[in-house]
Amino acid sequence: MKISIDQLIDEIDILIQELEQNIHFFDTKSTGFTSNLYHENFQRAAKIEKFIAYISKYKSNLFRPVPASDGTFYFFPTALSNRFNPYDFVYYQAVNTETFFPSYHHLSQNVQTFVNILHHQNQQPDWKTVPEIVQNYPNTPIEQIPVLDIQLTYVHRRNINNFVNHLRSALNVKEFIDSEKKIVKKTQTKYREYGNYIDELFHQNGDLTFVCLEFGLVSGALQITFPDQKTMSLVELKTKFLNNARNVDPLRRAIGYIGKWEWSNAKSGLYYRIIFIFPTQDVGEMNALQHALNFYWCEEITHGQGLCHHAHIATAPAKFKKSFCHIKASNDKEREQFKKRVIGYLTKSEKYYDPPELKQTLKSLLVNKTSDRDISLTFKSKSRK
């Protein structure tokens, strides 16, 4: 299914907001620990994603070339160029790509292509995408640096035009297009499948309550060795947690769950984000329920070596900006918001944030009794009749 430009921009805004919150969230109150201070630059990524969305949709020159009497060209702002103010996100003043955009390899192939082509062009002195005043006077006060399309010199506009042309060419390579189509198809299919799953649970059970938790191990550990010398990986511990759910209260009251394996430097590596689904009438006192879930993972399953973050359901609306929410089966608006924000994040966010460490680590934890489902990036339970 082809997505329109307005839908794509809306998706970028929503999923970047969710990534900003979820990947950086650390529940110090529950864990007793503090997070790693390293943060991903999702806001810069959002600017790049939107930039690529627009230049891919509209094929005109970013700055309109007009011949000058001396055989050169003037370059004038356009309606398209006005979309991207301020232009500081293309001001390349770094010695390498990692300095310009740390950990950009964690982000989409769009962002990676953008950074690599920008780096390559800026190795050529006559084609730099940073304003001449910054090149000639490195200590130029910030307020004197031009950032709007109408403030840029003709040479600077020409250079940015050249960058856009090279970027478009890279985005139109068959291998790139095929890769993009593959991930769009995969994420759209999962989004539809998970949305239908939630609708089915509403239909069968009426009003639902969603409780969000993120589970990992202390100090980013990937396995635990127990007193009997038995060793279990985080993947196996997660499987044990869910397999035993029907025998433990309050998990036996849950009618389903949806979740996603994630990697975050703020949380020291691998963990999984899970949203348990309960019939609202069976929830009882929420603090007691959350404490029971926390205790079961941290004490019963991991013997004191587990971490449990009480993460927010979503960044918006306000009702979702906490670790649980109740939604009435009759409230179509909230159900659609839940799908757009929560299901959208679980099933589509890998389009924008796909750290190689995530799949590499899951693959390294493969054991004979580990199924493909166990290491699938996203997961859900089967609906209970």
Commentary on this structure:
The chain has 385 residues and is of the alpha+beta class. The chain has two domains: 40-172, no CATH class; 206-380, Multidrug efflux transporter AcrB pore domain (Alpha-Beta Plaits, 2-Layer Sandwich), CATH 3.30.70. The chain is built from 13 helices and ten strands. It has helices spanning 5-24, 28-31, 42-57, 97-100, 109-121, 132-136, 154-171, 174-205, 234-243, 286-301, 332-348, 356-364, 372-375; strands at residues 64-67, 73-76, 208-217, 223-225, 231-233, 256-264, 269-279, 306-309, 324-327, 378-380. Strands 3, 6, 7, 8, 9 and 10 form a six-stranded antiparallel beta sheet that branches. Strands 1-2 form a two-stranded antiparallel ribbon. A hairpin with a 5-residue loop joins strand 4 (223-225) and strand 5. Helix 1 (5-24) runs antiparallel to helix 3, helix 1 crosses helix 11 (332-348) and helix 5 (109-121) crosses helix 7. The longest helix has 32 residues, at 174-205. It is elongated. The two termini are 31 Å apart. The mean pLDDT is 92.
Keywords summarizing the entry:
single chain, six-stranded antiparallel β-sheet, two-stranded antiparallel sheet, 2 domains, 385 residues, Alpha-Beta Plaits, alpha+beta
Q: For the record, what is the CATH homologous superfamily label of the largest domain?
A: Multidrug efflux transporter AcrB pore domain
Look at the structure and give the CATH class of the largest domain: Alpha Beta
Structural class per helix/strand content?
alpha+beta
Which descriptor suits the 3D outline?
Answer: elongated
CATH architecture of the largest domain: 2-Layer Sandwich
- What percentage of residues falls in helices of 4 or more residues? 40-55%
Q: Could you say how many structural domains there are in total? A: 2
Question: Total helix count?
Answer: 13
Specify Rg, calculated over alpha carbons: 24 Å
Protein name: Inovirus Gp2 family protein
Organism: Acinetobacter bouvetii
